[in-house]
Amino acid sequence: GDSVTQMEGPVTLSEEAFLTINCTYTATGYPSLFWYVQYPGEGLQLLLKATKADDKGSNKGFEATYRKETTSFHLEKGSVQVSDSAVYFCALANTGGFKTIFGAGTRLFVKA
Amino acid sequence: DTGVSQNPRHKITKRGQNVTFRCDPISEHNRLYWYRQTLGQGPEFLTYFQNEAQLEKSRLLSDRFSAERPKGSFSTLEIQRTEQGDSAMYLCASGGRTSGMEQYFGPGTRLTVT
User: Fold this and answer.
1) Closest CA of chain B from A55, distance in Å
2) What is the pLDDT of residues A66-104, one digit of tens each?
3) Cβ contact A110:A84 at 8 Å
């Protein structure tokens, strides 16, 4: 079945460091791919999405490119801030969107 | 747009009791999802409604779990004869016709079974 694998955390970075959180997926067909973020004490919220191969999703300085050849959707940010400390979830939704599969989440700590 | 709301936010119950959770989606959204999330894991899909029709149920949803969405508005998730393994955060999410497959999540209901 469909699945999402993302790098284990926690990831600890200093402010202004470069961030990469790896995400790979297994799916039939052509899924849409998402990154959701959960800030401390808050619910999950969509960070960015990409609906087809080679699409790049971006928001709040974060980017991820849908790579069908490597079945990956890695999250990147050039310069992290303390306020980016959160748990990041990679997810996929297949045709029809009935079921979204989430990765286990990667916790990011950013130190001042 | 007041967002997705869930009630109660916390529920502590004794093993063997029944519990019911409510989710109020964003008003114009026709899609509604339930997930279960345990510590250190991502949300696990439980069930999906499109309007009032329950179109998919996970194998995780045993006979003790039932969900409804009468009239395609709010939804309830009932767990009968709770077990300690049911302790988790139960998340509701909704999505609209124009929002693609993205979902908007509620704050969750944390269930503790003692």
Assistant:
1) 15
2) 999 999 999 999 999 999 999 999 999 986 667 889 999
3) yes
- The pLDDT value recorded for residue B102 is 85
Measured between beta carbons, the chain B residues lying within 8 angstroms of A1 are none
CA distances from A8 to A20, A62, A86, A107, B47 (A): 12, 19, 14, 8, 27
B40 CA: distance to closest CA in chain A (Å) = 7
**pLDDT in the model for residue A97:** 61
Which positions in chain B touch A91 (Cβ < 8 Å)? 42
* Contacting residues of A for B103, CB less than 8 Å apart: 46, 100
